[in-house]
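Data deposition worksheet. Section B asks for the primary sequence of the deposited chain exactly as it was used as input, without tags or linkers unless they were present during the calculation. Section C holds the resulting structure in token form. Section D is free text for depositor observations; keep each observation to a single sentence. Incomplete worksheets are returned to the depositor.
Section A, Depositor: J.P.
Section B:
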Amino acid sequence: MEIWQQFLSITERLSQKVNQKVTDDNREQVIVDVQQLLDQRSDLINQLPQPETESEKSTVQRVMELDLDINQKLEFLFDGLKGELRNMRKQKSSNQRYTNPYQSVASYDGMFMDRKK
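Section C:
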């Protein structure tokens, strides 16, 4: 019974963490905390017994409800991160084009070779 309550407690903390507002200032800390909680959960999953009592079954039901919400929020969080990475790459390449606009122009343009016979 105690291990199921511990698992529920970690799941609730994870749910709170993914539901908090993520800003530029706290993004890295949120990701680290989420990763730690996911690691703790994965360690406990291997130790979980089959639910036998009604209280364990209700705990499992609560964990499953929270898990659906957590998965949706994590998907949303990581989609946002992917979009920001894409924008950063695009901004980097446009900055490089702005600082050196003739980088892509071939250096042999306009070259003329004269051969005498």
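Section D:
The chain has one domain: 2-93.
The first helix runs from residue 2 to 19.
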